[in-house]
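Hi R.,

As promised on Friday, here is the backbone we talked about, encoded as structure tokens. Could you run it through your design pipeline when you get a chance and send me back a sequence?
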């Protein structure tokens, strides 16, 4: 096993983003560009990940504090070679160093593995482009061997015709990299220390220079502007939609789904247009998701149907449930089998057992609801006294009449019925009717006031 260091360059200013936020912290598919790279890097199990950052003070290290990586500041930024130099003190010699970029977020680990197959060589990730403008060109000799990388600004007209370009991503034996970087000079058009100059040094020293290509073009697409960010977002969403379709998921329109994280689907899942999936979402067999629903970090078990415009976050939904339209399940909602949650019903931090229903306009917070419970329209659990939250317990087979307030802490015991329009502040006993309601009164002979002349 080779020991692997990964250096991620992320010091560039990102001027064309026109933003106060460091470029690598802008989000693609719901997470910062740099986070995508850190997650891919971690899959390769390196001994060290080192992020070279530059702008935004501590914003970059602070945002990525959960990742097991080191951060070194590059200040000023004198080029890609100078950036890698900043990381050298952290890198062990008997290892290979892989250079990645914080603004090239979708590089895949299968592609990177190819770069690590010849640990004694310098291996470049290159790409053929019909329109290579702006990129460093890969110069090869007659035998096809790489001899150098020429930056666009330093290239001759003939070199500019070369269609094979440098993606920037490369792997090299650390000891050699250290040696080469110490010899870099900035006598070029941009007065920068170019990482790409190490190629000619390797060639001069007789070290093999190999190349590999990414499996997909989007893997090496770099972000410099909001336009490119939006373009890559669409490419990535298309790619994920393609995967879902190939797995057998039915998408009403593959151009109108957004997966910002990981979506795992069973068989015969159907997803209508405009849905957004965030974090990790699991959909069981035969689940149907209605249009414009947003589901975050949740699981939906088999045969459940989510009607349009439902919002579901950190919730667990059992089999055969009916949710929405316009339902909102907030964190900590756990619904068992055959639960119906209808329009304009909000559930938070509550468990609802089998066959129970809350079909219209209710708020159920911090509650435990038993089986076969019917919660009438407009029922509200008053869980907050202004300082503390309290629980509402609704046992099996309870019927709550419409427009009821249950002032927590309170227990509605098994089989109880609550009359419509009640404000319940004390526990309601089993199998009886409890209600709190002013007596109805009819005033005989009462007349409506008349308009004054
Ligand atoms: C670089 C390559 C070029 C390649 C292109 C691919 C060099 C000299 N050239 O050119 O061959 O085709 O990438 O996009 O390497 N960075 C730092 N510190 C610096 C300078 C850059 O961290 O001092 C980072 C940037 O944040 C960026 C990356 O390195 O992520 C590339 O820098 P950039 O200036 O965009 O390089 P190019 O000139 O495009
Ligand atoms: Mg540059």
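Update: got your reply. Pasting your designed sequence below so it's all in one thread:
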């Amino acid at each position: 096993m080779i020991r692997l260091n990964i250096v991620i360059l992320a010091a560039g200013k990102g001027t064309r983003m026109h933003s106060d936020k460091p470029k690598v912290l802008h989000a693609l598919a719901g997470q910062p560009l740099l986070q995508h790279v850190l997650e891919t890097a971690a899959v390769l199990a390196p001994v060290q990940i080192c992020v070279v950052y530059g702008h935004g003070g501590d914003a970059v290290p602070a945002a990525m504090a959960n990742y097991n990586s080191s951060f070194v500041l590059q200040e000023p930024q004198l080029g890609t070679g100078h950036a890698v130099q900043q990381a050298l003190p952290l890198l062990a010699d008997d290892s290979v160093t892989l250079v990645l970029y914080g603004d090239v977020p979708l590089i895949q680990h299968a592609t990177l593995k190819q770069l690590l197959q010849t640990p004694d060589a310098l291996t470049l990730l290159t790409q053929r482009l019909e329109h290579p403008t702006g990129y460093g060109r890969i110069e090869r000799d007659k035998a096809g061997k790489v001899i150098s990388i020429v930056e666009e600004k330093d290239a001759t007209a003939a070199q500019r015709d070369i269609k094979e370009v440098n993606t920037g991503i490369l792997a090299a034996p650390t000891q050699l990299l250290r040696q080469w970087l110490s010899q870099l000079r900035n006598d070029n058009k941009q007065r920068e220390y170019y990482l790409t100059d190490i190629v000619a040094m390797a060639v001069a020293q007789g070290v093999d220079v190999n190349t590999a290509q990414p499996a997909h073009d989007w893997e090496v697409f770099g972000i410099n502007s909001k336009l490119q960010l939006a373009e890559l977002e669409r490419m990535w969403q298309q790619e994920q939609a393609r995967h879902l379709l190939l797995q057998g998921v039915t998408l009403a329109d593959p151009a109108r789904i957004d997966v910002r994280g990981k979506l795992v689907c069973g068989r015969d899942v159907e997803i209508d247009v405009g849905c957004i999936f965030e974090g990790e979402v699991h959909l069981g067999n035969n689940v149907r998701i209605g249009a414009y629903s947003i589901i975050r970090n949740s699981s939906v078990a088999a045969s459940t149907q989510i009607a349009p415009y439902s919002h579901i976050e950190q919730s667990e939904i059992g089999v055969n449930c009916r949710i929405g339209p316009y339902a909102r399940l907030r964190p900590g909602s756990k619904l068992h089998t055959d639960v119906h949650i209808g329009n304009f019903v909000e559930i938070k931090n509550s468990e609802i057992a089998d066959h129970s229903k809350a079909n219209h306009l209710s708020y159920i917070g911090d509650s435990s609801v038993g089986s076969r419970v019917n919660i009438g329209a407009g029922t509200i659990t008053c869980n907050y006294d202004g300082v503390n939250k309290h629980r509402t317990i609704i046992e099996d087979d309870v019927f709550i009449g419409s427009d009821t307030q249950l002032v927590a802490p309170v227990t509605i015991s098994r089989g109880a019925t609550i009359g419509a329009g009640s404000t319940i502040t004390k526990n309601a006993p089993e199998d009886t009717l409890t209600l709190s309601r002013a007596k109805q009164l009819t005033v005989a002979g009462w007349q409506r006031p008349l308009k004054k002349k």
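One thing I noticed while checking it: The helical segments are 33-43, 59-63, 80-87, 109-115, 157-160, 174-182, 198-205, 226-246.

Thanks again,
M.
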